Amino acid sequence: MQLLKTPIEYLKGVGPKRASLLKTELAISKYEDLLYYFPFRHIDKTQIYTIKDLDASLQFIQLKGRVIRCEDLGHGKSKRFVVYFSDNHDTIKLVWFKGIRWIKSSLDFNKEYYVYGKPSYFNNEVNIIHPEIHSSDMQNNAMYGSMQGVYSTTEKLVSKGLNSKGIYKLVNNLIPLVENDIQEILSENIIQDLNLPTLKQALVNIHFPKNNNDLERARKRLKFDELFFLQLFLIKNKIIRKNKFKGLELIKIGDHFNDFYQKHLPFELTGAQKRVLKEIRMDVKGPSQMNRLIQGDVGSGKTLVAFLSMLMAVDNGFQSCIMAPTEILAQQHYRTILSLINTMDISVEILTGSTKTGKRKDILENLLNGEIDILIGTHAIIEDRVQFDNLSMVIIDEQHRFGVVQRSKLWAKNHKPPHILVMTATPIPRTLSMTLYGDLDISIIDELPPGRKQVKTLWQNDSNRLKVIGFIRDQINNGRQVYIVFPLIKESETLDYKNLMDGYDSLLRDFPLPKYQVSIVHGKMSNEDKEFEMKRFVEGITNIMVATTVIEVGVDIPNASVMIIESAERFGLSQLHQLRGRVGRGSEQSYCILMSGNKLSDEAKLRLQTMVNFSDGFKVSEVDLQIRGAGDMLGTKQSGSLQFKIADLSQDQNILIFARKLALKLLSEDEGFSKKENINISRHFELYSKEKKKWIHIS
Ligand code: ADP
Ligand code: MG
Which of 83, 416, 550, 697 has an alpha carbon 20 to 30 Å from 234's alpha carbon atom? Predict the structure, then answer.
């Protein structure tokens, strides 16, 4: 057996009890797991401070000197032991409240000591409370370097003696044992070209660096490894899939497409829309199955691109479907598509959770016998009983709302997998799309339709409400419509409703808007009621739409020009950007007003200020990534594949771009890793992809 696969139990200092805890608490079950359990920071013991330079603003520091005197002070709770420590020039007090007996018995006035701790103010002078202290002969004994790793741990592990230092000691036992068994996983070429340390050096130095330079090099190498192998995996998967899954060849551009494109397009397509359509066209007429992500900002016109793609399917005698995350959105797509189809001979149906039994039966039947050309729906369309005659094009709108499993179910709805087009709700940063969707082809709509005025975003304090209300009045009197959105309380729909009503009532009480008609939409309503209220707003019968975030994604009402977001500090950035995207869809100047209270966290301020500063969704999402990190930004549904040990997508953009480039190059030169120089990569890749397949399903 390989040494690195040895159960952790057998490492000196572990044993069965600690082993089972290490496994449950930190997922460390083998030597190898501990080797890859990296410290999250390092204590720098390479530097020695002088006492006169100390003040309480410093973090942990190190001193070198002798004990010149000690005394017991205080009683009861303030009982303490004070050591006067000198570095030959000045003296500082080291103070212990606990463990006094042990400290007393171990100090030796004849020895030189290293002291390590954080300076703080106590009794109006700089002291160090509960420092680490050990004699200089021990320090010289330290096996590796003098920057000590700090490891994260858990309460349970601490209770078994495995605090950070305890783990450090285990790593200390481990490294000399295994370091000669660490096998290189990169090729000699790459290591030399990139001037990286070997894997062995990197793994030793990440735990025990001698200095900052070693540490940085080790970190860079290990980050590169993580990102590089993920990219190899994603790109290789894409290649394999393209070879394996022959797509349905949608060869011709037919009458429906041509007729619509030439005569019925409601407006000239933007350059970006045209480009993306061409990319789709190239995919679907070729021999492979399409798997494409469309990234576009809110309002960039993804729906029209989706519709034209479906026409390609219709013209070749195939069915298509579009899945949206909410009933409201599915209904909207249905209306839009019906009006686009106009007099064309194409049959469209909508299937959602609220479709009546009889109707549902008809739809299921007509899907199977090929009567229906285009199906629009919610999650309801992934159910097993929904079967098609010849499905060739699947479009998933606002795909972040769906889990991987839900999406992959649509693959199985045809004997040959259909072409897949997934569309994002808001853009995500390039580093994220490259990792999360590195196995997809990506199209970017980076242009808004012409004539759009940029939405003006204002951040207003609650005390300015009177002004805001006046503004709403003016807008409505000019014929515009207004959204007022309240935050949703997830835990309870009842509360959500109450919140909305209370919020709106108090708004009305203080600032009556009596003449105006109001639509109200919230999560607690039945779909018919929602639909009814929405419809009144769409038709301009109501002037104001009061809603929770059920309104968030996709809704398209060009005459609405004001978005008021109440308690805006309680929304995340991508949500705020989505909400803002509900306005600015017509040719009028639109406004997004963020209402907030006074007491805001720094992070909330940053979010709101970001909204004011940037209108570009790609920029907003970059900030979001910096604030939240990749895992939180994407939610658990999607982040399983993004669990890095050391790489950080908010910081390592350059390494990532480089890793992807190199992975592409390597695969184009040696797809099967069969060249001799790539043997290390080949060996590691096999293990890596076995592990990774548990996480990643292709969209
Ligand atoms: P999103 O990309 O957010 O899904 P939509 O597809 O809902 O955006 O489109 C937003 C609005 O822009 C719709 O009202 C749509 O009719 C309009 N639109 C789409 N493409 C164009 C275009 N090329 N020129 C003008 N308006 C367009
Ligand atoms: Mg949309």
Answer: 416
301 lines ligand 1 (CB under 6 A): yes
300 lines ligand 1 (CB under 6 A): yes
Nearest C-alpha neighbor of 411 from the set 291, 254, 329:
291
- Does residue 448 carry a pLDDT above 80? yes
What does the pLDDT average to over 370-376?
97
> Rounded to whole angstroms, how far apart are CA atoms 452 and 584?
7
User: Which ligand ends up closest to the CA of 300?
Assistant: 1
Torsion of CA 557, 559, 562, 568, to 10 degrees: 0
3-state SS class at 291: strand
Distance CA 234, CA 240 (A): 10
State the pLDDT at residue 482: 94
What are the φ and ψ backbone dihedral angles of 698, each rounded to 5 degrees? -80, 140
Which ligand does the CA of 299 lie closest to? 1
CA angle 625, 560, 336 (to 5 degrees): 85
Span 66-74, average pLDDT: 92
Q: Please give the distance, rounded to the nearest whole angstrom, from the Cα atom of residue 691 to the centre of ligand 1.
A: 42
* Element (DSSP H or E) covering residue 341: helix 327-341
Amino acid 327 reads E
**Model pLDDT, residue 697:** 47
Is pLDDT above 80 for 125? yes
CATH of domain 255-284+301-424: 3.40.50.300
Average pLDDT on 651-674 reads: 94
- Does ligand 1 have an atom closer than 6 angstroms to the CB of 270? yes
H/E run at residue 425: none
Q: Tokens 């997508």 identify what position?
A: 649
Mean pLDDT: which of 99-108, 497-506, 561-570 is highest? 561-570
> Looking at the predicted structure, is the pLDDT value of residue 655 above 90?
yes
For the chain, helix (H) and strand (E) counts, in that order, are 25, 22
Whether the CB of 204 sits within 6 Å of ligand 1: no
Q: What is the CATH number of domain 47-145?
A: 2.40.50.140
The backbone torsions φ and ψ at residue 481, rounded to the nearest 5 degrees and listed phi first, read -120, 160
User: Looking at the domain 456-614, which fold is it?
Assistant: Rossmann fold (3.40.50)
* Alpha carbon of 328 to ligand 2 centroid (Å): 12
Q: How far, in whole angstroms, is CA 450 from its chain's centroid?
A: 31
Residue 381 has pLDDT above 80, yes or no: yes
* Structural contact between residues 170 and 15, judged by C-beta atoms closer than 8 angstroms: no
Quick check: CB of 426 below 6 Å from ligand 1? Answer: no
Indicate the top mutation candidate among 261, 267, 305, 398 to test ligand 1's pocket, ranked by most ligand atoms within 8 A of CB: 267
